[in-house]
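Example (one chain per record):
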Amino acid sequence: MQQKNTSKGFRRVSASRGWLALSPLVLFLSLYLVTSVVVGDFYKVPITAAFLVSSVYAVIIMPGSLSKRIEVFSSGAGSKDMMLMLWIFILAGGFASSARQMGAVDATVDLTLHLLPHSLLLSGIFLASCFISLAIGTSVGTIAALTPVAAGIASHADMSAAMLIGIVVGGAFFGDNLSFISDTTIMATQTQHCRMSDKFRVNSRIVIPVAMVMLVIYGVMGRGVPSYDVSSDVDVLKVIPYLAVIVTAVCGLNVMLVLVIGIILTGLVGITTGCYDVFGWFQSIAAGMLGMGELIIMTLLAGGMLALIRYGGGIDFIISNLTRHIGGKRGAEGCIAVLVFLVNICTANNTVAILTTGSIARDISLRFGIDSRKTASILDTVSCFTQGLLPYGAQILIAASLANEALKASAPVLSPVDIMQYTYYPMAIGLAILLSIIVRYPRKYS
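Predicted structure:
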């Protein structure tokens, strides 16, 4: 038989079937990344076209009737997590567009440049992203709030927009990794049966030093930021929508409610200041929502394709092969890290990756005597590291989309890969978790 259920909760999949199930992902990466690198142009192959070709290929090669394959694809595209993500994208687009039309972005940029000297600009953006994400527990919400401001600062100060937005995306994963209300933290601790406070103690020893080093690095890089002209007049009234979004997010309100409040305030302030009338406000919201169209299409195609990969046994193939040959605690911790890394690549969702591998990671931990708090930290940190480097992950996709919305009148289009190369913080925590496995750190929990 090609596959069977095992006691660990996954199917044993043959090599031929496992590689076949994973081939749509290989095809996508080849079409988008490899081809773009070869020709030296990341706009040569539109990412939506790469997803479409890979999705059609996935539907063709998977086992079962055509109606069943289409059903699996549609269920994956329309899953609860995917739909929630789409609503956030739609609201973020509406808020970003209406805020830009009434001058909220320009006013917020002016205020930021007034408050931060140019030498502290990079550190300030990173620190703000870390703080907000820690408070609200979502990287997507943080990116939605700060990306338009970062893009506006880049345009005003004649700096690299990809770099500033990469700093925002990196800082957003700080809170995603550590916040007590983050989905990844909750999932990692629940699957490993440990307390969030205990996981935080272990996790913070690994990543907080990294964040402090990044602050110093950004401080040094900030010395090279060219001086810029600062507007002598800041329209504080137009800053209110952005301040409200940040404050309500920090207070812990649901990200969708936060964005709705932001949209309403852009209308009230915009109409009051004469930036547009009611119909102009409606049009700006609609334009922003329509501007999310490409992102929504990519998300739906990715969700469907990845559901087919799971249905075909691709995830089970990875898990079963990685867990066969483990020796010692370092090997066990390394296996858990590689496991969540590979599954995250296949699902493009760090929470789903932890959910998928959590029970297997616990089995490995119990077998080799690994502290559950260390295991939870490995799961969470590796998933955030991986997600921060995926050009088809939700965080980088929405950052690119919102940046292009903010910059479309004054700058070239940014691709996800343009931003990805500046996500230094996720790269750094990936190195930190690898070193923690090799040198058995923190000692108390290793």
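Caption: Residues 1-8 have pLDDT under 50 and may be disordered.
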